[in-house]
């Protein structure tokens, strides 16, 4: 075994230990150890399976009890199959919709003659501990032409939502992007059909992005709390993003698909947006005791103000009761147009409601 490979393995082992011991995820080392079949290590029938259907089926039944078995079978099939003619970003967006909103199945009549319109949720966002969190390192995956072993894949209820590519500590993080991650997107794109978060690290520094991010758009995660002094640290990123409650919050509320430029890009929250939006969300929850004084969310130029607004409005509408209206006031007409275009592009307002004016209500 080469020293280079040994050092890569050391970073993998350290990462796996952190997930298992600190973050309390289950951990499995799969290379040359995985057995197949429903009672095998992960329940996969072969190396082509990227969704661990054993855990998915368990979640479907646990979160959506009382349906006929055929409903669970159809939901599993709908969730795990894709149109191979679709682009990766199209497949990913469709899968994200199912993850966030649930799988809508065909109506059926129950024994009492009532029509049931099942929408099966695959993740319990309100109760993180009710979900199955698993990382698998060195999982062998067969694509149509090639076989690969990504360093670490994180599964929630069998859904491969997290991809981590690791390098030895003396190597530049960019190498993980250029030599491995981009190759995996070409050779085993199936592992990214359901992906939410891509992480790259050398065990010291870490960067995070989405499946459409160029390397220059991969970001650091420096703080766990707003007032902390920031530091570029891989474990800070893991703790900030992969703690169970934070991870599900990001999946549910901090991912957008923006087609306002004419090309769909996947937007994953940055560190400051996640912290700032959640502080603003808490202030809205406490608006009565705060007497309506919610505070100021300060951004620098180019730091994603429009996306932060979209994250906040979507989270409020999804999680709080009431008929909330948001008024965005700008000091320039071009900003009005930009914000309305962004909100329409990410689906935060209806496409036919794109006429911007001072005091536009969203």
What can you see in these coordinates?
With 362 residues, this protein is of the alpha+beta class. It has 10 helices and 14 strands.
Keywords:
362 residues, alpha+beta, 6-stranded mixed β-sheet, two-stranded antiparallel sheet, 10 helices, 37% helix, 14% strand, disordered C terminus
Mean pLDDT comes to 90
Total number of strands? 14
Low-confidence stretches: 356-362
Helices and strands, in order, run as: HEHHHEEEEEEEEEHEEHHEEHHH
Strand content: 5-15%
The portion of residues assigned to helices is 25-40%
Largest sheet: 6 strands, mixed
Structural class, from helix and strand content? alpha+beta
Kindly report the spatial arrangement of strands forming the biggest sheet: 1-6-9-10-11-12
* Alpha-carbon Rg, integer: 21 Å
- Helical segment tally? 10
What is the general shape? Answer: globular
Span between termini? 59 Å
List the helices and strands and how they pair.
Layout: H1 3-22, E1 26-29, H2 53-63, H3 69-80, H4 88-101, E2 103-104, E3 108-109, E4 115-116, E5 119-120, E6 133-137, E7 141-142, E8 147-148, E9 152-156, E10 159-166, H5 173-187, E11 197-201, E12 206-209, H6 234-242, H7 244-253, E13 255-258, E14 265-268, H8 271-285, H9 305-319, H10 333-345
Parallel strand pairs: 1-6, 10-11
Antiparallel strand pairs: 2-5, 3-4, 6-9, 7-8, 9-10, 11-12, 13-14
């Amino acid at each position: 075994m080469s020293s280079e490979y040994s050092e890569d393995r050391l970073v993998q082992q350290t990462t796996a230990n952190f997930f298992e011991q600190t973050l309390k995820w289950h951990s499995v080392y799969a290379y040359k150890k995985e057995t197949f079949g429903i009672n095998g290590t992960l329940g996969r029938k072969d190396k082509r399976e990227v969704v661990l259907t054993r855990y998915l089926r368990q979640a479907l039944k646990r979160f959506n009890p009382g349906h006929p078995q055929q409903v669970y079978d159809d939901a599993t099939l709908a969730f795990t199959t894709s149109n191979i003619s679709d682009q990766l970003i199209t497949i990913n967006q469709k899968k994200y919709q199912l993850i966030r909103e649930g799988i809508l199945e065909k109506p059926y009549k129950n024994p009492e003659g009532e029509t049931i319109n099942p929408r099966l949720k695959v993740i319990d966002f309100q109760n993180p501990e009710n979900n199955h969190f698993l990382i698998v390192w060195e999982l062998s995956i067969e694509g149509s032409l090639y076989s690969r072993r990504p360093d670490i894949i994180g599964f929630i209820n069998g859904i491969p939502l997290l991809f981590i590519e690791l390098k030895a500590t003396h190597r530049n993080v960019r190498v993980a992007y250029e030599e491995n991650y981009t190759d995996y997107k070409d050779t085993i794109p199936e592992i990214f059909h359901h992906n939410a978060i891509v992480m790259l690290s050398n065990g010291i520094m870490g960067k995070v992005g989405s499946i459409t991010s160029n390397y220059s758009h991969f970001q650091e995660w420096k703080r766990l709390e707003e007032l902390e002094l920031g530091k570029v640290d891989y474990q800070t990123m893991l703790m900030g993003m992969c703690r169970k409650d934070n991870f599900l919050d990001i999946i549910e509320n901090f991912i957008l698909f923006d087609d306002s430029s004419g090309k769909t890009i996947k937007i994953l929250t940055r560190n400051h947006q996640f912290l700032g939006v959640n502080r603003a969300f808490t202030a809205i929850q406490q608006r009565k005791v705060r007497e309506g004084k919610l505070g100021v969310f300060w951004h620098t130029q180019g730091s994603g103000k429009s996306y932060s607004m979209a994250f906040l409005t979507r989270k409020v509408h999804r999680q709080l009761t009431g008929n909330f209206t948001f008024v965005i006031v700008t000091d320039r007409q071009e900003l009005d147009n930009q914000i309305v275009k962004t909100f329409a592009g990410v689906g935060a307002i209806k496409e036919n409601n794109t006429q911007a004016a001072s005091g536009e209500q969203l």
